[in-house]
Amino acid sequence: MDSEYFNSYNMCWGTLGTVRPFSNFHPDRDVMAIKAALENKDTVTLVRILTNRSNAQRQVIAEAFKASTQKDIVTALKKAVSGDLVLLLVELLIPSVEYEAYRFQEAMAVMYNKDLEKELQGETSGDFAKLVTALLNKDCVAAAVQKDIETLSASLKGKKADAGPWIDILTSRDLDHLNNVLIGLEVELEQTVDQIVEKRFTGDFRLGLKVLVQCIQSPGVYLAKKLQTMKKELVQRIMVSHSEEDLLCIRAAFIKLTGNSLYTALQVGDHLQALLAICRSED
């Protein structure tokens, strides 16, 4: 493991991410090192710096690089580095908010084998489109757990289940609240939420809702299963987007699911160095 990681490790101890803000952060020094690395095609240095800085720090580096060189750092990377590694380094440099939107749209496109924007244009009145639109515009609204349980339960009492409350509640509450709501609903109906959704909804909306429920109830397990496929682009997106949040949880779920550590499973590919640097260590 890189010594720079140990130097910054204590700064954010207690978080569930593997990438933490680098305590001895000097963007000007990083820019100088990156410029030299780009000239010499030194991928080791590029990986060492970009995987040992938080996303916010990478944005500072990108701005400092542009001020110093009058060039965009992403464009410079694409000229100096190729293959899977450059794709990963570029994704590391995307601002967090933009990356989450990009990752969500890519995930939907992969899941349904469709272009998300075209799908929404072609199905603007469908429940699936409403669900995706609500997720894209997700906001957190305070509510009472018991009231939400009652609302979801009532939505299932008609001959046809009402998708509206499911879309509204599952896309506008925080994770802890939603977990309590779904647990309460399971107790009341004596079925798992997955069984409820399977029986009462159909089509793309059912699939989307089941994925959303899995992500709420067991996000680490859900993502560990996705990582198990070892599909290059999917692995890359998960590693980058969860590196500062909960990759330790995903690592724990992965070893429980497969019997092997994620670090061991990643011992392949051209961008091995960067993926292992994000993963950090064996379990």
Automatic annotation (TrEMBL):
One of its GO terms (cellular component) is nucleus. Belongs to the annexin family. GO terms for molecular function: calcium ion binding; calcium-dependent phospholipid binding; phosphatidylserine binding. Keywords: Annexin, Repeat. This is Annexin A14. Gene3D superfamilies: Annexin. Pfam families: Annexin.
